[in-house]
Design a protein that fits this description.
The protein is an alpha+beta fold. Helix content is 38%, strand content 11%. Strand 4 (109-111) and strand 5 form a beta hairpin. Bound molecules: zinc ion.
Length: 141
């Protein structure tokens, strides 16, 4: 949502995940204490954060406190489904692909070049923005 390049690793090979994280300069966010014990992490060569909670809001607060994450970084510039940078679309280009009410009220659209999902600043976008701002405003974890 904030525009940070992120991947969900759903494989079972932790070594592969670690290799990819190093190669791509990623920070690993995990609930797995075994990852934290790896030499590559304890030596500081690869940054990893052990998530203290399973609750998404608490996780977000922990990340904001730990990784210097800014909710105003590049909000809603990446596809929420596939992490690809979104491209701007003119209103005419999305005609017939969004609900009539949306088409009537929205002028700015973004499209994911990979999955073709369309985004606009509707009520869902506003709700997500408010949620992020609320999280950023509360300091306790
Ligand atoms: Zn996509």
């Amino acid at each position: 949502m904030m525009g940070y390049d992120s991947l969900f690793f759903n494989g079972s090979d932790d070594t592969q995940m670690v290799r990819q994280a190093i190669a791509e300069g990623r920070v690993i966010l995990t609930r797995d204490t075994e990852i934290m014990k790896r030499r590559v992490v304890s030596s500081g060569r690869l940054r990893a954060v052990l998530m203290e909670s399973e609750a998404p809001e608490r996780q977000m607060r922990q990340l904001m406190a730990t990784l210097d994450i800014d909710i105003h970084f590049r909000p809603f510039t990446l596809c929420l489904e596939c992490n690809r940078p979104l491209e701007e679309r003119r209103k005419e280009e999305v005609a017939g692909r969004v609900p009539p009410y949306v088409y009537k009220t929205q002028t700015q659209y973004m499209e994911c070049p990979a999955c073709r999902r369309l985004y606009w600043r509707g009520t869902h976008w506003e709700a997500m923005t408010r949620q992020l701002e609320r999280l950023a405003a509360t300091e306790e974890i």
